[in-house]
Design goal:
Blueprint lengths: L8 H16 L5 E3 L4 H6 L7 E3 L9 E5 H4 L11 E6 L7 H8 L3 E4 L2 H6 L6 E4 L23 E5 L8 H14 L4 E5 L18 H11 L10 E5 L5 H5 L4 E3 L11 H8 L4 E4 L4 H5 L6 E2 L5 H10 L4 H33 L3 H11 L7 H7 L9 H18 L1
Parallel strand pairs: 1-2, 3-4, 4-5, 5-6, 7-8, 7-10, 8-9, 10-11, 11-12
């Protein structure tokens, strides 16, 4: 399987899930319905048995759709099907309404934090982390190159939620601390289906103005060594291999199981990200990559590029991360495939299999503490833990 051809990371992960079902369950017809345009970009990567919807018409069987797509439908469109909703973002307040309106068979949560922050007792909860293309052949994951590379890369949609403007605000100090450094930005607002209306940047007109103001300039021509590449497709790997440091969402607050960060780590690039919400889960096994605030970017970039960063330790941490991903994602994928196969036979049989599927992730202390960190009632860690256990018992009884 080749790498992401230039669509959103979550979109590509959905394609990988569809690809896995098509490959492992040949009797099931698989179709993709994800924002239309991005599906077309997959092109030759899409196997013949994975088709794209022209317009959504459910005809029975199992329908697996992102929450954002389900909200655009009417219940009668999926009335004769087993609907499975993919919940991709933590603390999604629209999920209860969708469950009440559509009555889905199950909800797939992407990442531990998304699972526990959106856990429901009135529906089957499955945990299927975003799959990586290298999951199919991890031997292709490149070795870490600790050679001198005086460049920084940002990977992600050029939208306010990905917080690139915070990188822009910190850039003057980054350039001051690391003379001659360059910045390459891979991504655009079209990754999220939004218009690219700015005359110089691949983003909306309003956000383009905000980004330039954050840099302290009025025009892109005033910036030196800064390149906006947009969505370049699979050739982005050529750029990534030349990056000494990667940055994704320096705030981290909208991430559940960030695909872009994992993609850069798999490629051997030390990558900074905000340690909030779901990013805490991913960053917990790495030293020196977590950002508590965007003001830390200049110092972290300088440390990595100047040699103060322990690349040997990063290499070991990355190897453990990939090895664990191989075990975890293969296990979750196999259980999801079993879920699909069994549920299409009968709901009763599927419910008997449910406990053995064991698709619930461990609620680690880092996950639990982040879940209750913003609680207005000031729950202690112990009370948060008791709440989780109470939910588990109640959910088990409802099954």
């Amino acid at each position: 399987m080749e790498s992401n051809p230039g669509i959103g990371g979550t979109q590509f992960a959905l394609f990988l899930l569809a690809h896995a079902v098509a490959e492992h369950l040949p009797d099931i017809q698989v179709s993709l319905d994800y924002l239309g345009g991005p599906v077309a970009k997959i092109g030759r990567l899409r196997p013949r048995r994975v088709k794209a919807f022209g317009s959504f018409r459910a005809t029975g069987g199992m329908i697996v759709l992102p929450l954002s797509s389900v909200k655009k439908l009417e219940p009668e469109q999926v009335a004769n099907s087993h609907l499975v909703v993919i919940c991709q973002h933590p603390r999604d307040r629209s999920l209860p309404e969708v469950i009440e309106k559509f009555g889905p068979l199950a909800v797939i949560h992407v990442g531990k934090f998304s699972f526990w922050s959106n856990f429901r007792t009135d529906v089957i909860n499955l945990h299927v982390p975003n799959l990586m293309p290298t999951q199919l052949d991890l031997s292709r994951a490149p070795a870490v190159d600790s050679g001198q590379k005086n460049s920084v890369g940002f990977l992600g949609a050029l939208t306010p939620g990905k917080r690139f403007h915070e990188v822009a605000s910190a850039w003057s100090k980054v350039a001051e601390a690391s003379p001659g450094i360059s910045l390459e930005v891979l991504g655009s607002s079209s990754t999220h289906g939004q218009e690219e209306g700015h005359p110089e940047l691949p983003t909306s007109e309003s956000y383009g103005r905000q980004v330039l103001a954050s840099f302290g300039v009025k025009s892109l021509t005033e910036l030196e060594n800064v390149s906006f590449l947009g969505n370049v497709g699979s050739e982005k790997n050529t750029y990534i291999r030349n990056w000494g440091v990667g940055i994704v969402n320096p705030d981290g607050g909208t991430e559940s199981f960030c695909y872009a960060w994992r993609e850069l780590i798999f490629a051997g690039v030390p990558t900074l990200a905000g340690k909030r919400e779901g990013m805490r889960e991913l960053l917990s096994g790495f030293s020196g990559l977590a950002l508590m605030h965007s003001s830390e970017i200049p110092g972290r970039v300088h440390s990595i590029l100047s040699g103060d960063f322990d690349h040997s330790a990063f290499s070991r941490q990355r190897s453990r991360f990939i090895s664990r991903a191989q075990r975890l994602e293969a296990d979750r994928l196999q259980k999801f495939l079993r879920f699909v196969s069994v549920s299409l036979q009968s709901k009763r049989q599927m419910r008997r299999y449910l406990i053995s599927l064991s698709t619930w992730p461990a609620a680690t202390p880092a996950v639990i503490s982040e879940l209750f960190r913003h609680s207005k009632t000031g729950r202690s860690f112990a009370r948060g833990r008791d709440k989780i256990f109470s939910l588990l018992k109640k959910a088990t009884r409802t099954r």
